[in-house]
Design goal:
Chain C: Pfam families: SBP_bac_3. Chain C: This is Extracellular solute-binding protein family 3. Chain C: One of its GO terms (biological process) is amino acid transport. Chain C: Residues 1-23 form the signal peptide. The complex is a heterotrimer of chains A (229), B (246) and C (299). With 229 residues, chain A is mainly alpha-helical. Chain A has a single domain (9-224), classed as MetI-like (MetI-like fold), CATH 1.10.3720.10. Chain A is built from nine helices and no strands. With 246 residues, chain B is mainly alpha-helical. Chain B has one domain: MetI-like (MetI-like fold), CATH 1.10.3720. Helix content of chain B is 74%, strand content 0%. Chain B contains ten helices and no strands. Chain B is flat and about 75 Å long. Chain C has 299 residues and is α+β, with helices and mostly antiparallel strands. Chain C folds into two domains: 2-128 and 229-291, Periplasmic binding protein-like II (D-Maltodextrin-Binding Protein, domain 2, 3-Layer(aba) Sandwich); 131-225, Periplasmic binding protein-like II (D-Maltodextrin-Binding Protein, domain 2, 3-Layer(aba) Sandwich), CATH 3.40.190. Chain C has ten helices and 15 strands. In chain C, the strands form five sheets. A five-stranded mixed β-sheet of chain C has the order 11-10-12-9-13, with helices on both faces. Chain C has a three-stranded antiparallel β-sheet with strand order 2-3-4. In chain C, strands 6-14-8 form a three-stranded antiparallel β-sheet, covered by helices on one side. Classes of the chains: A mainly alpha (229), B mainly alpha (246), C alpha+beta (299). The interface between A and B is large, with 39 and 43 residues.
Chain lengths: 229, 246, 299
């Protein structure tokens, strides 16, 4: 190995890299918040909704889980402006790549979050729903006041793990030339002919953040289920 | 928006004269299948070794296996792929690095993707194998030992035959993940299905048709694999275990 | 998601009102007025046309043209506070982004040709280039026919990619095609020995050589295959906006301002890697173009 490292590139490009990091965080936060919200709605529709709605939700979840996220991102990136213009009737509407990426991430990740929420609701013993109904609560009250709070507690580790998966997935917006953390780093590395240093740096940052998240998820899991190792 | 649909576009020759659009799209599909099948087979083999290592009493081995899993699970696949493609050849001894870079470019890209995808997938899959092994009750392990079986024998005859059946469903989803994740190959210039779709939709200026076709292909293959693996599951399930109820 | 949809709907409603108040003959201008915002394309490393300099600032010959056109739009619409939104594009994404009307204007290093005119329109040509090859001085590649079994990197989505694919299938050049996302990535692949040559527009190649760690190591070779005209991309069939773009560029050419820009970016040091000089003189063809501005493509 006779590669001469030169780490100064990263320091000089620091402000630019931080801009990229902001984009990544934006994608992550919006993806997690809206993804869990939509995922929960989907899960409820699938478990408690009328049959046609449940079937529709199942179809949605299966569709987004069977195509690559990259393809979903491409779809939204190319098609969303035109489709949104038809939907809103506004010929001047623009949808920047960031919105296309957000829409793709939220809709695709919601399918994964839906499965987690479904498992979470399933983990609450079914007798509780009947108990609530016999106490005179409506199904909706039972769901929001009794079932979901317990379900969310049980599925916190899974949600955290999916959040880490989402953080890793945000790097895929590279394919539409967005300036997320990875995109910014690649640009700087290529501009300065220092891709080796830049990629190692990026890998270390992702590794530290994701490892911390994985460790936290494992710790929570142990706390919630002290019986199991 | 005035979009003029043209579903016969797949029969038309590409503007680059490389063949019909449909043929170029199928070529992308073949790359996707070639990447995902080899990566999955290799990943299952590595995952089995790593997963078993993590359940053994040998501390060094357990530590090494855990380190591998932690590193490869916690870095985005795309970043790992870039490390293998752009960084590793520069850090190897010059002669090796040059040899790698001077390979046939298509083969080079193919093997790089396979290496990246295999190691990423194996890290995840090894967790499934480990929990499969752990789900076989500890009593059986002890029973094996009290019968005088060595560790290798108890794994071979008692634990693994049961664990392997338990891990069939997670291994199926691992294959589907590999199949979808193989699309990262386009970032290093290997035009698999998703990459070919994007390129051809621009060459032809008919993006809807190409994206619809690619989506259908991905869905069809996913469902075929799910149905196939369900059949395998049915044939191999253990009578009396919970899985048999479904 | 619902929040985004609501926001989009609101924006759409507001945009609709503003649009009807000032009817323009140009959809792009109408949109710009409605949103008080123009979206323009930027590039990371298209030297010396549109690039990020040492201070992480946008600069370049085409970037200056972009700014001049934005000024003309401000004046025409009477919008001195017009917001300028910059969007980073790559060769593979830029045409889609203009075609789906995310971008209002893209001036970097995009070839105007009849095939692309099916999707977008072009303003007056601002530079004339031609595809050539960048190789190591010691390389055996001297011309196009030497490419047999060699690895050649092109930028995905460029005219060079299509030309190389076409030549491979029609003239049997037999080159192995590698795809890069940006010019700088393509150069890196030649520099690290992954590709034997990079095929790109000649000026872009001169930029890469000037910026490289060892400029004396590289050479631009191969016959001038054909001329290509760089133009600003805008939405298809928008005569009103195209008129502003064309007039601005023609005005810059006839006033001598464009020649000054050519000197500044092609012949004098630019703020990249602490100051590099491309050393590309003004060709006779370019001189003729400056005297007689045109939006004609070469094919």
């Amino acid at each position: 190995m006779n590669y001469a490292f030169e780490w100064g590139t990263i320091l000089r490009a620091w402000p630019y890299l931080m801009q990229g990091l902001q984009t990544t965080l934006l994608l992550l936060v919006v993806g997690v918040v809206l993804g869990i919200a939509l995922g929960t709605v989907l899960a409820i529709c699938r478990m408690f909704g009328p049959r046609p709605l449940a079937a529709l939700t199942t179809g949605y979840v299966n569709l987004f889980r069977s195509i690559p996220l990259i393809l979903t991102i491409f779809w939204f990136y190319i098609m969303m402006p035109g489709v949104m213009r038809v939907l809103t009737g506004d010929p001047n509407l623009t949808v920047g790549p960031i919105y296309a990426a957000l829409a793709a991430l939220v809709l695709a990740e919601a399918a994964y979050f839906c499965e987690i929420v479904r498992a979470g609701i399933g983990s609450v013993r079914s007798g509780q729903m009947q108990a609530c109904l016999s106490l005179g609560l409506t199904r909706w009250q039972a769901l929001t006041n009794v079932i979901l709070p317990q379900a969310f507690r049980n599925m916190t580790p899974s949600l955290l793990n999916q959040t880490i998966a989402l953080l890793k997935d945000t790097s895929l917006v590279y394919v539409i030339s967005m300036n997320d953390f990875l995109g910014a780093a690649v640009r700087i590395g290529q501009r300065d002919g220092r891709v080796v240093e830049v990629f190692i740096f990026v890998a270390v940052v992702y590794f530290v953040v994701c490892s911390a998240g994985t460790w936290l998820a494992g710790w929570l899991q142990k706390r919630l289920n002290p019986g199991k190792a | 928006m005035n979009y003029s649909w043209d579903w016969l576009i797949f029969l038309q020759p590409s503007i680059t004269g490389e063949g019909a659009y449909g043929y170029l799209l199928l070529r992308g599909l073949l790359w996707t299948l070639a990447i995902s099948s080899l990566s999955w087979v290799l990943a299952v083999a590595i995952a089995a070794a790593v997963g078993i290592a993590r359940t053994l009493d040998f501390v060094v081995l357990r530590f090494l296996a855990a380190t591998y899993v932690n590193i490869f699970r916690n870095i985005p696949l795309l970043v790992q792929l870039f490390l293998w493609y752009f960084v590793v050849p520069e850090l190897l001894p010059t002669a090796w690095g040059t040899a790698i870079k001077r390979m046939d470019p298509l083969l080079n890209q193919y093997f790089t993707v396979v290496v990246g995808l295999t190691l990423y997938t194996a890290a995840k899959a090894s967790e499934h194998i480990r929990s499969g092994i752990e789900s076989v009750s500890a009593g059986q392990k002890q029973a094996g030992r009290s019968l005088g079986l060595t560790t290798a024998q108890s794994y071979r005859y008692v634990i693994l035959p049961q664990a392997m059946r338990i891990v069939i469903p997670p291994m199926t989803s691992d294959f589907l993940n590999v199949f979808k994740n193989s699309s990262v190959a386009l970032t290093i210039g290997l035009l698999e299905l998703a990459g070919a779709t994007y390129q051809l939709s621009e060459f032809s200026a008919q993006p809807f048709e190409f994206f619809a076709a690619a989506t259908l292909i991905y869905m069809m293959i996913t469902y075929t694999v799910i149905l196939l693996m369900r059949a395998v599951e049915r044939c191999t399930r253990i009578a009396g275990s919970l899985g048999a109820a479904s | 998601m619902y929040r985004i949809i609501t926001k989009l709907l609101l924006a759409a409603a507001l945009g609709g009102f503003a649009g009807t108040a000032h009817a323009e003959e140009s959809p792009t201008l109408e949109k710009i007025r409605a949103k008080n915002e123009i979206t323009v394309g930027i590039r990371e490393g298209s030297l010396p046309f549109n690039y990020l300099d040492d201070n992480n600032e946008q600069d370049g010959y085409s970037w200056q043209i972009t700014l001049r056109i934005v000024d003309a739009v401000k004046e025409k619409l009477g919008l001195p506070d017009l917001a300028v939104k910059r969007l980073m594009v790559s060769p593979a994404t830029r045409i889609q982004l203009v075609a789906n009307q995310t971008l209002d204007l893209e001036c970097s290093s995009t070839t105007n040709n009849t095939e692309r005119q099916k999707q977008v329109s072009y303003g007056n040509t601002f530079y004339i280039v031609g595809p050539r090859l960048l190789v190591d001085k010691g390389s055996t590649i001297r011309n196009w026919t030497d490419l047999k079994d060699k690895s050649v990197v092109v930028n995905a989505g460029t005219t060079a990619e299509k030309l190389l694919r076409t030549m491979n299938s029609e003239k049997d050049w037999g080159a192995n095609i590698l795809l890069a996302k940006e010019a700088s990535q393509g150069f890196m692949m030649v520099e690290t020995g992954r590709a034997d040559a990079a095929m790109m527009d000649d000026t872009g190649l001169f930029g890469l050589v000037a910026r490289s760690k060892e400029p004396q190591r590289w050479e631009v070779t191969g016959d001038f295959l054909r001329k290509e005209a760089y133009g600003c991309m805008l939405r298809k069939d928008d005569a009103g906006f195209k008129e502003i773009v064309d007039e601005t560029i023609a005005g810059m050419m006839l006033s001598g301002e464009m020649e000054e820009l050519q000197k500044k970016y092609f012949q004098q040091p630019i703020a990249v890697k602490g100051g590099i000089t491309l050393g590309v003189p003004l060709s006779d063809e370019m001189k003729a173009l400056y005297k007689q501005p045109t939006d004609a493509a070469y094919d």
